[in-house]
Amino acid sequence: MNPDQPIGVFDSGIGGLTVIHALRQLLPQEELVYLGDTARLPYGTKSHRTIERYTLQMGELLQRHQPKLIVIACNTASAHGLPALQAVSPCPVIGVIEPGAEAAVQHPGAIGIIGTLATVSSGAYEAAVLRHDPTRTIHSVACPLLVPLAEEGWFDDALTDAICRRYLEQLPPEVATVVLGCTHYPTLMISLERSRPGTRWIDSGQVTARAVDHLLRGSLGYRTAGSRGGLTVQLTDASTRLKEVGSRFLEEALGDIEVVEI
Ligand code: DGL
Hints:
- By secondary structure, the chain is an alpha/beta fold.
- It folds into two domains: 7-95 and 206-259, 3-Layer(aba) Sandwich (Rossmann fold); 98-204, Rossmann fold (3-Layer(aba) Sandwich).
- The protein has helices at 17-26, 48-62, 75-88, 97-104, 117-122, 124-132, 146-152, 158-168, 189-195, 204-220, 242-250; strands at residues 7-11, 32-36, 69-72, 93-94, 111-115, 138-142, 177-181, 200-203, 231-235, 257-259.
- Strands 4-3-1-2-9-10 form a six-stranded parallel β-sheet, sandwiched between helices. A four-stranded parallel β-sheet has the order 6-5-7-8.
- The mean pLDDT is 96.
- The site of D-glutamic acid has 18 residues, from helix 3.
């Protein structure tokens, strides 16, 4: 595989731009292609079969760019579609769950997982944590209202605080570490912190960027050009608000968006 080929990153929508942000900070020289399935978002309310099928289709679309690596930035797609895509992809594929679980077990005590309904009901985080440490206690809470709040941009808002508190009070007090098991949640950090002060939050995007770095340092190789890598953004549907909301997730201005047909 040519190390100058891009890294393909896919998400159910634009939430995965938080993972792109982490990748661009850690690996600024890498060329990135982002594919967001905005036409079919959300994945978090759908069944295993549907999410797996969508994941395979997104992987196929990314192959047009001949990526050296595919990152499934979406927790829900990682939970339901990772093995299926790994089985057919010509390049390596990683998801966000394994890096998030591995980071969580570095800290002692019970672990909390928050995510979409489909991620939590898959049990994928529990399985990954228990593979690393079979003695660990895990508490998972599905937080379906947090994705729309993030998309609405209510990042510092009393209503977001109240909803976060309502979800997070389901976690027992002994949980000291909570994995943000959804692409959108890092943008709600202010409310999450206010709702459960003293918690150690694991941002699965940031730890996944470190996992990508590890793979590139190994057999995949870093891009050879020293210049800053570009970012191509492709979506399966582009509505008017996407640019504004996407820029908030990316923490920089979102350039041109290409719309691709599924
Ligand atoms: N990207 C999804 C995730 O990380 C959240 C949005 C959705 O439900 O599709 O789980």
